[in-house]
Design goal:
The chain has about 240 residues and is of the alpha/beta class. The protein has a single domain, classed as Glycerol-3-phosphate (1)-acyltransferase, CATH 3.40.1130. The chain has 7 helices and 7 strands; from the N terminus they run αββαβαβαβαβαβα. Strands 1-7-6-2-5-3-4 form a 7-stranded mixed β-sheet, with helices on both faces. α1 packs parallel to α2 and α4 crosses α5. It is globular, with a radius of gyration of 18 Å.
């Protein structure tokens, strides 16, 4: 039934999603030119509200839970498992007050309305996976911006999306690189469930009536931990939460 309803409602979702990207592209441009970073960010936040809403058009329930008292006066590195691209709009919307930035493939900075513009001018890191020096330099720049502006970053240390919800091993590299430039950043695990089910049949049809949950877990302080131990502790927190669910 979920697949059958997906055939019916997926086009509605894609039309709404695409229109939002097209409409907000010039809005972002005007906001950035006239109002600078804050106005541009506000336009991106609103865009991602609508992109998140578009999931409801395929019956998806999006449940975001944050019971943690997170600081706004220091950088935060949100470390999350990764199941599909549909997690990104809710993360941007619900974490908007923390100015969360992403590490993205440089290929995405061209040709996609709204998304490419935001990646170019939103303050995140756009990396060339074939050029390790460029990638490290871009992440260093993001870490520096985090330190200077008390921004945050969302990082997916699995390196690729999980197609079945099973968590892959978290890599140390990206987190370690950010911490070199933002050493006082707070590590905050985020556990995501249900996102992979939306695309379990591929891009068409999307599965109708799934539930995607994004849960912010207890923060972890670096406090002298070895980097490998920090990442292992973060991975363990996410795994434990998901397994309990």
């Amino acid at each position: 039934m979920k697949k059958l309803l997906g055939y019916i409602f997926t086009p509605v979702h894609y039309i709404f999603f695409g229109l939002a990207l097209v409409i907000f592209h010039p809005i972002q441009w005007v906001a950035l030119k006239l109002g600078g970073y804050r106005a541009h960010k506000a336009s991106v936040d609103i865009l991602n509200f609508f992109l998140t809403f578009s999931l409801y058009l395929i019956g998806t329930r999006v449940i975001f839970t944050n019971l943690q008292k997170l600081p706004k006066n220091r950088p935060i590195i949100f470390v999350s498992n990764h199941q599909s691209l549909y997690e990104i709009p809710p993360l941007i919307w619900y974490l908007r007050k923390y100015h969360a930035k992403f590490i993205s493939k440089i290929e995405l900075t061209k040709g996609i309305p709204s998304i490419s513009f935001n990646l170019k001018y939103g303050g995140g890191a756009n990396i060339d996976r074939k050029d390790s020096k460029q990638a490290v330099a871009e992440i260093f720049k993001l870490g520096k911006r985090m330190k200077e502006n008390n921004w945050s970053a969302v990082i997916f240390p699995e390196g690729t999306r999980s197609r079945n919800g099973e968590i892959k091993t978290f890599a140390v590299g990206g987190i370690a690189t950010l911490l070199k430039k933002a050493p006082h950043a707070l590590i905050v695990p985020v556990a995501i469930t249900g996102s992979w089910k939306i695309v379990q049949y591929g891009k068409y049809p999307l599965s109708f009536g799934e539930t995607m949950k994004l849960t912010v877990l207890q923060p972890i302080e670096l406090e002298g931990l070895l980097m490998e131990d920090l990442v292992m502790k973060t991975e363990g927190a996410v795994k434990e939460f998901i397994e309990l669910k």
